[in-house]
Amino acid sequence: MAKRRKRKSTKNPVLPVLLLILGILIISGLLGLENATTDMPKATNIISKIFTSDTASKDKVSTNVNKDKEDKNTSDNSTNGIEDEEKKQVITPLTTSLKLHFIDVGQADSILLEQNGEFMLIDGGNKDDSSIVVEYLKNSGVKELKYVIATHIHEDHIGGLPTVLKSFPVKNFYIGKRTATTSIYKNLVSTAKNLKLTFTEPKVGEKFNLGGAEITIVSPNSSGYEDLNNDSIVVRVVYGNNSFLLTGDAEDESEAEMLKSGQTIKADLLKIGHHGSPSSTTAAFLKAVNPKYAVISVGKDNSYKHPAKATMNRLKAASIPVYRTDESGTIVATSDGNNITFDKGLGSYNGR
Fold first, then answer.
1. Domains in the chain: boundaries
2. Model-level pTM?
């Protein structure tokens, strides 16, 4: 007969030890032995060692399992991070446009720019135009003006600004350092001071943003112009692939300085200087700017005989489409960053 193999004992070695210690504790408690308290830590140490050795392998297995879970969670989190990032990249930003409102203020200037909820006003027309400008701004949703620019201190550009400043909060106010003794200029200065507005002098090359549009100051390049019109703050606005040059009343002397300055003046849209006067928009300047469109802010049947025939002939010879406030009223040019559209039809090349 084959010998039966002895089965390996499956008894837990911990049990006898536990029973032994339990017996010691009971006897110690019954006999009131003083050394029972000293034996208890020893017994505890024995149990701890046994449990440690017996559960080491189990802990190791448990650790490995937990590690696998952690690795999986880390992998899942990493995957979720990638998915979240992909979701962020898929989100399409709100598409907004840049709008330039050439407000019809007669023989004067006032241009409102808006981009992504931010607004800038360049000039405010004559004093008598103030209510027209303020009402137009309110109807356009203006609650605050991030920038106000007074191109120069002639009444047809700053006359309406005191009322504008009192009607809307203004964050930044740009004006040249040239002063005047006229009541119109004094009213503007006192209004700004009462509102605690700081006058910021333009610096050529300075850049700032209106929403997603970038504005650069390109003139005045001198402080010694005899004619105040040449003091005009000229800005170039860039939005996407489109650009705009807004010239105030800059005349030939200022235009020549811009050509020499090295500043970029090329633009898709040119706001014609000084309402189309014969001393603005020289052939050299027009060639350098090379605009696709021109806008003239001018009063109907004005006494200055603007726009001049010479200016209109230069625009016609260059085949530049013209938009005129004296013929169309307020003109709104809209850019999506690639194309510029107008809300009014083309104007004529008729000069006076």
1. 15-90, 98-342
2. 0.74
